[in-house]
Amino acid sequence: MHSRLLSVGIAVLGALLPRAAAEYECNRTYIQSFADSYVEAHENGQLNNLENIADNFTYIENNKTREITSGIFNNALKIAHRHTIVDTIACASFTELIITHNVSGEPAPYVIGAQIRHSPGDLSCYLMDLIVSTTGSWLFNSTKTLEYASKENWTLIEEDKRPSRETLKNAADAYLDMWSNSTAEAAVPWGQPCDRLEGSVYTGRGLPTDSCKVGIPTNHNQAPNSHRRYVIDPTYGSISVFCIFEHLSNAPDSHEFRLENGKLRFIHTITLANSGGFGIEESAPQPVVRYRKREGLRRGGAVGFSKRI
Ligand SMILES: *[C@@H]1O[C@H](CO)[C@@H](O)[C@H](O)[C@H]1NC(C)=O
Ligand SMILES: *[C@@H]1O[C@H](CO)[C@@H](O)[C@H](O)[C@H]1NC(C)=O
Ligand SMILES: *[C@@H]1O[C@H](CO)[C@@H](O)[C@H](O)[C@H]1NC(C)=O
Ligand SMILES: *[C@@H]1O[C@H](CO)[C@@H](O)[C@H](O)[C@H]1NC(C)=O
Ligand SMILES: *[C@@H]1O[C@H](CO)[C@@H](O)[C@H](O)[C@H]1NC(C)=O
Ligand SMILES: *[C@@H]1O[C@H](CO)[C@@H](O)[C@H](O)[C@H]1NC(C)=O
Ligand SMILES: *[C@@H]1O[C@H](CO)[C@@H](O)[C@H](O)[C@H]1NC(C)=O
Predict the structure, then answer these.
(1) What is the mean pLDDT of residues 231-236?
(2) Which stretch is the leader sequence (predicted)?
């Protein structure tokens, strides 16, 4: 018995040590301050304050490579809500921004997710990968998104309660696998309360019984959520995943998950797809409709949904 435990212990050490040694931690302060400069670029409507840009820098917006000067950064935006996490292993950050107006007070409705990646060596920024949603995107209404997001508490997780990177990645992957894998739902660490902010629609009512199971896929034979890119920050119990919703005409998508005590507490989604006939004026049970429609899209043909991106 003892010798078996010992050998298990050695095997565990053997598995952990080389990986721990190989894991170089990037400078959190630096990555955070670059994210600050990125947010300032939106506020100023110009990119001059972005420094240490890599030679091979690439800008991606809604899963397309573009010139960074081609659009969103020409508008000086008033940032109504901002949330940033930092991945010190992947040398990356994720920032969520909610905007209703620009600095001139004109309407500028946007909800933006930004994954920013740095080279481990000189920390130069080589990729800004944005999901930019606006009027017409899935369940879009940035005023409502702002109302719900402002009420949530995404504070730092106490040190001894932080989930591991693996726990966060497994939770996010299990969730995003539900469309294409019938056993994935059982692997999701569902919490209660749990609230999903899907575009501008909230699955909860602020009650202890709130559940994120509202409207989850019942058809597990759909095309997968692929091309996943991760930013993981255990200090906030959070993971950002960008992906492609293949079952929704390859819609670019952002999901951010927050775990508390190892269980799902919050989910925020941004999806670059048409809401079809289901406009933002519809209220609460709408997410149920959403996922049912996705099944319908696959099973019954895309009547009324053919214009989705
Ligand atoms: C991390 O980055 C900050 C901000 O750029 C800098 O002040 C600090 O010296 C860096 N820390 C290390 C250990 O390089
Ligand atoms: C867009 O998504 C597809 C996967 O569906 C991927 O192969 C492609 O590289 C993506 N484009 C960019 C610029 O990331
Ligand atoms: C604010 O938005 C309006 C309308 O789109 C635009 O004309 C104006 O230039 C914007 N202001 C700034 C400072 O970007
Ligand atoms: C740019 O360089 C970084 C490393 O410095 C690398 O990780 C990344 O894949 C490169 N990007 C492209 C688009 O080649
Ligand atoms: C967005 O939501 C706000 C707050 O609920 C509402 O007043 C507004 O009419 C909505 N906007 C649109 C375009 O539906
Ligand atoms: C957020 O949660 C933390 C810890 O759970 C708590 O200390 C803090 O008071 C909360 N903040 C708000 C505004 O509720
Ligand atoms: C389906 O999900 C389960 C639970 O997360 C996982 O163990 C399994 O590997 C997945 N199957 C496939 C084919 O991805």
Answers:
(1) 98
(2) 1-22
Q: Give the list of residues 6+ apart from residue 249 with CB closer than 8 angstroms, or none.
A: 273, 302, 305, 308, 309
What is the Cα–Cα distance from 306 to 276, expressed in whole angstroms? 9
Q: Closest Cα partner for 127 from 18, 242, 221, 218? A: 242
48 residue type, one letter:
N
Query: What are the structural domains of the chain?
Result: 28-150 (3.10.450.50), 159-299 (3.10.450.50)
Our answer on whether the CB atom of 56 is closer than 6 Å to any ligand 6 atom is no
pTM given for the model: 0.86
Residues in the chain: 309
Please report, for residues 3, 118, 169, 248, 289, the alpha-carbon distance to residue 28 in angstroms, rounded to integers and kept in the order given: 42, 11, 20, 35, 40
pLDDT over 90 (residue 97): yes
Poorest-pLDDT segment among 16-25, 183-192, 264-273: 16-25
Decide: 183 in ligand 7 pocket, CB within 6 A. Answer: yes
- pLDDT class of 71 with cuts at 50, 70, 90: confident
* Amino acid letter, residue 247: H
The answer, yes or no, to whether any atom of ligand 6 lies below 6 A from the CB of 3, is no
Q: Minimal CA–CA distance to 119: which of 31, 23, 40? A: 31
| CA 153 to ligand 6 center in whole angstroms | 6
Q: Mean pLDDT, to the nearest integer, of 210-225?
A: 95
